Amino acid sequence: MHYKITGKEKPIILLHGFLEDHTIWQVVAEDLSKYFRVLAIDLPGHGKSPMIPKIHTMEMIAEEVCRVLQTEKIEKATLVGHSLGGYVALACVEKHPGLFDGICLVNSTPEADSLERIENRDRAIQAIWQNKKRFIRMAIPNLFNQLKLEVYKLTIEKLVLAACKMSEESIIATIEGMKIRPNRLRTLKEFKGKKLWIIGQKDDILDAKQLKKIAKRNEIPFVEFPDGHMSMIENSDEVTSVIKAFLS
């Protein structure tokens, strides 16, 4: 897998979301790299990382992430995962808990897909086969606070252009993997390391109220920011400060 390393000292692994690549973390990573060893990874089929088998299961991607740690001779790291990256991070700590001392979910959830979400993903697959670019141009703006789309117009266009370089097969392989991921709330709850959950109040992908209920019920520390599904862009300074404090 392709990845970028900056900084030194305590290792932190940054995992991006669906239709993204490691550059989504650029602003946050630049600041964190002053204090930590930051590894920002392109997940399979995204960015410069090639596809793996036909379905990109979270478990399979997790093994690829852990292989990067092995290559870099990292014995212990903290995981920070955005959306899809959070699903992968949970699979990492479930399969190899001894490798990690902390996990931070950013606009993500430990719950499995609902039946409604699975049906939506199936419709997305059909849309991708029909017109990949049109699907991407519809999907990416929905990740942001809908009241601030004009503010992020250039960023959205950049993300769209990057995502359009992905093949239909890579996109669908990831969707199929997300569809079949199990509920990992118990994994998160029982993980012995530090935990943090970053939630977007105006996230149109995930229900912030539901996420907060789960966090409170299971005593998982969380922070809520006022914007959408892209907290590391929409609230980059605040996210950086929170993650820095979490790692210290």
The CATH class is identified as Alpha Beta
CATH superfamily: Alpha/Beta hydrolase fold, catalytic domain
What is the total tally of β strands?
A: 7
Q: Figure out the total of helices.
A: 11
Low-confidence stretches: none
In spatial order, strands of the major sheet run: 1-3-2-4-5-6-7
* Average pLDDT: 96
How big a fraction of the residues is strand?
15-25%
Kindly identify the CATH topology: Rossmann fold
Specify the biggest β-sheet: 7 strands, mixed
Radius of gyration, Cα only, in angstroms?
17 Å
Structural class: alpha/beta
* Number of domains as seen in the coordinates: 1
Give the end-to-end Cα distance, rounded to a whole number of Å. 28 Å
How does this model look, in words?
The protein has 248 residues and is of the alpha/beta class. The protein has helices at 26-32, 58-71, 84-95, 115-130, 132-139, 153-163, 168-179, 185-190, 208-217, 231-234, 236-247; strands at 3-6, 11-15, 37-41, 77-82, 100-106, 194-200, 222-225. It has one domain: Alpha/Beta hydrolase fold, catalytic domain (Rossmann fold). Strands 1-3-2-4-5-6-7 form a seven-stranded mixed beta sheet, with helices on both faces. Helix 4 (115-130) crosses helix 5. The longest helix is centred in the middle third of the chain and has 16 residues, at 115-130.
